[in-house]
């Protein structure tokens, strides 16, 4: 028992031929069986009939099987068994592996809308359906980005994982980015481009905001202490609680002001607001 090809490759939704050839000594009607190997071995062809999912989409000529419109579920290892009880060698077999090829699909791309100069930024691209696995190339403003050859390059491209990494982004890296997935089976597919803006942090504005808030805290604290000592508040008034609460709200204002001067404004503000309850609990627990 032999085969013309131990590994058969067929594009998805095309026909695949699994060859099995045999020669007997005396037995003119040997028993032919095909099995698919997996977690469990299942019959594909037995007792002159195809079984299970192959019943209406496979043909046999001699011992060679043709599968119609193969899919990923058909991929795997098959075994052809020939039984000839009248021969000196009563059983022979051969194995054939079927690989179902899948052309590239439109990849999923993760491209940040903005980033701060000097930060590390990763752009990701992935097509999980193509077989063999796709390789990836990146484009900026519809122009291909070459894979860097120098060790001191400012960016890296991994064609196997689809990651484009900037070690330290600069304003010159602003642009519209897109990624293309390719393999040898079919035409390449590209994800929709997305604009990435690189912005500087407004250090002056952040420092000025912090200074102003610190001055306000000092003034409020001194003013509250002066009024407390001069009897403007009731005895039940807790000066420490008052200062803590003022400090909490001014700190929150400082954080929000700093976020307004960063590149990722919306994301940072949403993050801060979503954590407001935690800040409130943290400070007020210590101000009671």
From TrEMBL:
<dbReference type="InterPro" id="IPR042625">
    <property type="entry name" value="JAM2"/>
</dbReference>
<dbReference type="InterPro" id="IPR013106">
    <property type="entry name" value="Ig_V-set"/>
</dbReference>
<dbReference type="InterPro" id="IPR036179">
    <property type="entry name" value="Ig-like_dom_sf"/>
</dbReference>
<dbReference type="InterPro" id="IPR003599">
    <property type="entry name" value="Ig_sub"/>
</dbReference>
<protein>
    <submittedName>
        <fullName>Junctional adhesion molecule 2a</fullName>
    </submittedName>
</protein>
<dbReference type="InterPro" id="IPR007110">
    <property type="entry name" value="Ig-like_dom"/>
</dbReference>
<keyword id="KW-0812">Transmembrane</keyword>
<feature type="domain" description="Ig-like">
    <location>
        <begin position="104"/>
        <end position="204"/>
    </location>
</feature>
<dbReference type="GO" id="GO:0005886">
    <property type="term" value="C:plasma membrane"/>
</dbReference>
<dbReference type="GO" id="GO:0009986">
    <property type="term" value="C:cell surface"/>
</dbReference>
<dbReference type="InterPro" id="IPR013783">
    <property type="entry name" value="Ig-like_fold"/>
</dbReference>
<feature type="transmembrane region" description="Helical">
    <location>
        <begin position="239"/>
        <end position="256"/>
    </location>
</feature>
<feature type="transmembrane region" description="Helical">
    <location>
        <begin position="203"/>
        <end position="227"/>
    </location>
</feature>
<feature type="domain" description="Ig-like">
    <location>
        <begin position="1"/>
        <end position="97"/>
    </location>
</feature>
<dbReference type="GO" id="GO:0098636">
    <property type="term" value="C:protein complex involved in cell adhesion"/>
</dbReference>
<keyword id="KW-1133">Transmembrane helix</keyword>
<dbReference type="GO" id="GO:0070160">
    <property type="term" value="C:tight junction"/>
</dbReference>
<dbReference type="InterPro" id="IPR003598">
    <property type="entry name" value="Ig_sub2"/>
</dbReference>
<dbReference type="Pfam" id="PF13927">
    <property type="entry name" value="Ig_3"/>
</dbReference>
<dbReference type="Pfam" id="PF07686">
    <property type="entry name" value="V-set"/>
</dbReference>
<keyword id="KW-0472">Membrane</keyword>
<dbReference type="GO" id="GO:0007159">
    <property type="term" value="P:leukocyte cell-cell adhesion"/>
</dbReference>
């Amino acid at each position: 028992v032999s085969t013309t090809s131990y590994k058969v490759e067929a594009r998805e939704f095309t026909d695949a031929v699994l060859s099995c050839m045999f020669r007997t000594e005396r037995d003119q009607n040997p028993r032919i069986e095909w099995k698919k190997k997996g977690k469990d071995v299942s019959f594909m062809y037995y007792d002159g009939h195809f079984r299970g999912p192959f019943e209406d989409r496979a043909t046999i000529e001699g011992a060679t099987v043709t599968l119609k419109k193969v899919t990923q579920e058909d991929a795997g290892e098959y075994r052809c068994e020939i039984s000839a009880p009248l021969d000196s060698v009563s059983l022979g077999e051969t194995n054939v592996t079927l690989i179902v090829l899948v052309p590239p699909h439109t990849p999923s791309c993760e491209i940040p809308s903005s980033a701060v100069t000097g930060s590390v930024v990763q752009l990701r691209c992935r097509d999980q359906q193509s077989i063999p696995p796709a390789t990836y190339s990146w484009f900026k403003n519809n122009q291909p980005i070459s894979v860097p050859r120098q060790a001191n390059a400012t960016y890296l491209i991994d064609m196997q994982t689809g990651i484009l990494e900037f070690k330290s982004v600069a304003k010159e890296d602003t642009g519209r980015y897109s990624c293309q997935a390719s393999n040898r089976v079919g035409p390449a597919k590209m994800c929709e481009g997305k604009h990435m803006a690189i912005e500087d942090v407004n250090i002056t504005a952040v420092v000025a905001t912090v200074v102003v808030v610190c001055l306000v805290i000092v003034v409020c604290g001194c003013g509250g202490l002066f009024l407390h000592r001069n009897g403007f508040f009731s005895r039940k008034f807790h000066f420490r609680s008052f200062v803590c609460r003022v400090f909490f709200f001014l700190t929150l204002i400082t954080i929000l002001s700093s976020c307004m001067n960063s590149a990722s404004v919306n994301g940072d503000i949403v993050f801060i607001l979503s954590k407001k309850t935690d800040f409130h609990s943290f400070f007020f627990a210590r101000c009671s």
